[in-house]
Amino acid sequence: MGISRDSWHKRYKTGATRPIPHKKRKFELGRPAANTKIGSHRVHLLRVRGGNFKYRALRLDNGNFSWASEQTTRKTRIVDTVYNSTNNELVRTKTLVKGAIITIDAAPFRQWYESHYALPLARKKGAKLSEEEATNLNKSRSRKTTLKYTERQKTATVDPMLIEQFQTGRLLARISSSPGQVGQANGYILEGKELDFYLRKIRAKKAK
Fold this sequence. Notes:
alpha+beta; Structural Genomics Hypothetical 15.5 Kd Protein In mrcA-pckA Intergenic Region, Chain A; five-stranded mixed beta barrel; three-stranded mixed beta sheet; 7 helices
């Protein structure tokens, strides 16, 4: 019969059946959920009402995530789904939906931070740097450029909870786009009270 978004097929609160006013209409149709999974990029184009298009993401492996406190956005790899307030089944099946809490690769944000501030971020003592990282941090600069970096370094503070995550190479983020409609999994890195809230939720879930 097809998925329908009407309300007249439901019974009254008393349990009586409603009269059927007409057959199903095109404007009442519904479609199955996208259930976007983590995997190599696969997006289907869908023609919808009004001649518009939706982009139904079936598989995604990366997205654009913003680091709000640093006012920067980077494209990075999606690693895993760790929490979903609506349904644990979506976590078990690693489904990407709006509002899902996921882990993303921290490398692009670390590279940006170290090139922007010329400071190491969450590096262990004595850790070996790659040639590119070493040149970024230790290259000789003109006096004017050195002053510019010195000014920047005055405001280079990172949340201690974020530093812990940078050490593991994984950051917690929240998806703010609808992958089943826009074909992308974009979002933002969790910080401050929001990060603390979700960390407590994840720990409580693991403790069960």
